[in-house]
Amino acid sequence: MPSTSEKTSRVSVEERLFSLVLALIATEIGLTKADILSTVQGYRQRYVSGGDNASLERQFERDKDDIRELGIPLEVVEPPDDPGSNHHLRYRIPKGLYDLPADVSFTADELMLLKLAATVWREGSLSAESRRAMTKLNALGIDSSDPVLGYSPSLRVREASFEPLSKAMDRGQVVAFLYLKPGESAPRRRQVEPRAVVLFDGRWHLFGTDRDAAANRTFLLSRIVGPVVAVPGGTFVPPGEGQAQEALSELDALWNANLATISVQPGSDAAVRLSKRHSTDSPQSGEGDTTVNLHFTDLNVLADELAGFGPEVLVHAPAALRSAVRARLVSVRDAHTDALTTSTTEEGE
């Protein structure tokens, strides 16, 4: 038989919150804290009748904050015969405030597709909007065991900064982080109002207002060094839906404006990978040579990638990209030369 802790570990945060929301919608008079902890999935497995449930109560307090952050109207009802008593407070979610408008409806297929879109995100990277959508769709009757959901894609978020930036954006909090630009010897501290986190050309970007520069800037998440922290007292009005589209439009314009012309060896790894890109135009340029035109948003990111192909790639333009790739190859050559010289010297001794 599995232990109690093993059973609890199978209840995800999303499942516990969803169970709590369903329980609070189903009650008209509200549920006391004891009612919730002893009966709701995700709490009851750890509840000790007559025992110490302090950690479980703290979990419930955090979950209440999460529910409110998701935009769900959570009401607290004081007992009429014992006003001011925290022990007998009752919690409920008014169903009328949580239901969809009467003139809005979805077919079963539409609901399934909406939930499929919401489940693209892995649990650890769900934004507040995605969590709200997931909870709402579950409440509308879509079972998470729907077969089609087994084929949903997953966007993996590799950068540790993604989640704190998303939370700060949802809450309207100014953040600070160290940002290391190519060519700089040390990272610089940035204070930013995060307005959108978008995926473009296979990389995550933060679009926000740089408070020191008093202007909008786009940052690569992969260049954020160390933790993202909230600036005490720093707040702003959370962004609207158009911010992400603005960020993508700017990145798209930058991508279209930058074009690299390179040659790749036919049949090489570079030829296979680069010629298959959606941004690639690959006219043949004589035997033994293939010319590839690549659009790009960041010269240094592309230089890192092209240098990794070694002699399989020759950069023709722009000149700055050619110099950047050459500098990387020279650096690798010098590093290996120094290591070989040191090794030979040690063996001679």
Describe this structure in words.
The protein has 349 residues and is α+β, with helices and mostly antiparallel strands. It folds into four domains: 4-98, Arc Repressor Mutant, subunit A; 108-151, no CATH class; 162-244, SH3 type barrels, CATH 2.30.30; 258-338, Alpha-Beta Plaits, CATH 3.30.70. The chain has twelve helices and twelve strands. It has helices at 4-9, 13-26, 33-39, 54-69, 95-98, 108-118, 128-139, 162-171, 242-257, 269-274, 299-307, 319-348, and strands spanning 31-32, 75-77, 90-92, 173-179, 188-200, 203-210, 215-220, 224-235, 259-264, 280-281, 290-295, 313-317. The strands form three sheets. It has a five-stranded antiparallel beta sheet. Strands 10-11-9-12 form a four-stranded antiparallel beta sheet. Strands 1-3-2 form a three-stranded antiparallel beta sheet. Helix 11 packs across helix 12. The chain is elongated. The chain starts with a helix and ends with a helix. Mean pLDDT is 77; it is low at 1-9, 122-126 and 142-155. It comes from Cryobacterium cryoconiti. Residues 162-225 form the WYL domain. Residues 261-329 form the WCX domain. This is WYL domain-containing protein.
Short description:
The chain has 349 residues and is of the alpha+beta class. It is built from twelve helices and twelve strands. It starts with a helix and ends with a helix.
